[in-house]
Amino acid sequence: MPIKVIKNLPAITKLAQENIFVMDTERAESQQIRPLHILLVNLMPTKEVTETQILRALSNSPLQVNLTLLHTASRKSKNTDEAYLDTFYRTFDEVRDQFFDGMIVTGAPVELMPFEEVDYWSELTEIMDWSEEHVYSTLYICWGAQAGLYHHFGINKEVMPKKLFGVYLHDIYNERPVLFRGFDEKFWMPHSRHTTVSQVAIRGNRDLELLAGSAESGAAIVRSLDNKHIFVFGHSEYDRDTLQREYERDISRGDGVEIPENYYPNDDPKQKPVVRWRSVSTLLFTNWLNYYVYQETPYILEQIQKMKFERDKNQGAYI
Prior knowledge:
Layout: E1 3-5, H1 11-17, E2 22-24, H2 25-30, E3 36-41, H3 47-58, E4 65-70, H4 82-88, E5 89-90, H5 92-95, E6 100-105, H6 121-134, E7 135-141, H7 143-153, E8 157-172, E9 186-197, H8 199-203, E10 208-214, E11 218-224, E12 229-232, H9 242-253, H10 278-294, H11 303-313
Parallel strand pairs: 1-2, 3-4, 3-6, 4-5, 6-7, 7-12
Antiparallel strand pairs: 8-9, 8-10, 10-11, 11-12
InterPro entries: Class_I_gatase-like, HST_MetA, MetA_family
GO molecular function, one term: homoserine O-succinyltransferase activity
Subcellular location: Cytoplasm
C-alpha cells in the first residue's frame, strides 16, 4: 500500500525519483474503498493447479479481491471434472453483463497451433473485445500474452529453434513504470514455450513498450502505453516443482527435452530445484493489482465504458 503524507512534503519528490509510491493526504481522503473485482480466464487444462498459483500470487497484497473464475464454454475440459467447473467456474455468458477492475488471462498448451485453429479462439477474442469496455486493466500470461498481443496489436508469434525451458535472468529496459517498483536491476523468471514474439515488431509499435527481456528469452514483459494491457511471456507464478513436472512429463513422452536451464543445482535433476523467482512473482502481481488497477480503476465500475469512449476520442494521448 502507498505511504500517506502531507501534501507537498519535500520527501515526496525524492521518493518518487526512487520509484516509491507516496500518496498525499488530499488524494487519500478523496479515495473511496471497495473490494477489487478480478476475472481469471483460466485456459489451462489443470485448472486447480493454475488457479492455486494465481491466487497465491495475488494474496500478498492487503487489498481485498473478489475473484471470479471463468472457463471457455466452447471447449469441454478433459482434465477438470464437470461438477468442479459447475461449482466454481462461470462461463462468459454468465458474466458478460458485469464489470471488472482487472482480468488475468492464463497460458494454454496450444502454442504451436495457429491462433485461429484453437477451438475456443472465437470465444476468447470475444472476451478480449468485451474487456475493452468491461475491464480496466488486463494481465496476460505466456500463450495468453501472445494471444492478446496478436489480437489487439497484430503481432504474431514465431516458432523458436528449440524449446525455451528453464529459469532465465532478465534485464529491465525501463525502470520508470511502476510495474517494476521493488525489483532488482535484473530478475529471474521461468519460461516454458516453443514460440516467441518479435522484439523489433514490439519496439516498432507506437502503442507498446518493451519493458524487460534478455538475449535468451527474448521479450519478457510488454505493456500498452495506456496500461490497459500487460503482457508477461514467462511464468513468475510457477511453483518450485512446476518445471520439474513438465520435464518428467516430456521425458515420459519421449520428447527428448533438455534439462531445464538454471533450475537444478549443477543441472542435476536429482537435486532440489532452486527458487529464484518468488519475490518477482509477488512484486509483479501486487504492483499490477495496486498501481494499474486499484489506484486507477473507477469506484463505479460501469464508468469503464465512459473511460473507453474518452480514450478513443483522444487516441494517442497516452500518459
